[in-house]
Amino acid sequence: MRAPRWLDEREQEAWRGLIALQAQLNARLRRSLQRNDGFSDATYAVLVHLSESAGGRLRAFELGEALQWEKSRLSHHLRRLERRGLVERVGCETDRRGAFVVLTAEGRRAIEAAAPGHIDEVRRSFFDALRPEQVDALSEICAAVLLNLARLDATAAGSSTPRPADGLPDDGLPDDGLPDDGLADDGLADAGQGQGGTRNS
User: Fold this and answer.
1) pLDDT, greater one: 168 or 32
2) In the sheet that 87-92 helps form, which strands lie side by side, from edge to edge?
């Protein structure tokens, strides 16, 4: 058994700082979205991905991969958004087992109304504290870690990874009892997204 590769003091300080930053920033952005727009960071993330896709639609499996959500979580949350009229699911003409998740006109109005205030909160909470060179360094760090994660995933999965089924049928599981938008996202809300399907960069 390989001996643990413990973090040294410098690495531990950086790692704990990242965890604290993520927790506090998530909480602040979540409160802001709920207070100003009445929905969660999970809903914001879904609407942003759809608003930036061609035709305001994505295959269900593509949306799940982009959000890094399990199929059951995505299916349950999409049902909530369908009840609110923000998205709809339609069949795929070329794949009877597949489904598209489509942004409705009401969903587009919702994301266009929410994006300016959300981006302002992101800027005040995060970017206003950084110098330009720090933003560049952060971009490099994110790119390096994401590339490393992709390599690790590829190694674990082997040469081929089967694509998940994307039909997202109603699986009969009960809703989890949360309010329609009570399901919070696991990571930072898609803070870099701009209004109505454009990136505010």
Assistant:
1) 32
2) 57-59, 95-103, 87-92
pTM value?
0.75
Domain ranges of the chain: 36-125, 130-159
106-122 pLDDT, tens per residue?
A: 999 999 999 999 999 99
Residues paired with residue 58 on neighbouring β-strands, in sequence order: 101
Residue 136 tokens, joined: 């560049």
* Residue 102: pLDDT over 70: yes
Please provide the DSSP assignment of 110-147 as one string. Answer: HHHHHHHHHHHHHHHHTGGGS-HHHHHHHHHHHHHHHH
Name the class of domain 36-125: mainly alpha
Determine the Cα–Cα distance for residues 106 and 49; give it in Å rounded to an integer.
15
| Number of alpha helices (DSSP H) and beta strands (DSSP E) in the chain | 6, 3
Strand, helix or coil for residue 98: strand
Q: Would you say 117 and 37 are in contact if contact means Cβ atoms under 8 Å apart? A: yes
Query: Tokens 């590339």 map to which residue?
Result: 147
Q: Which structure tokens are listed for 119? A: 């981006």
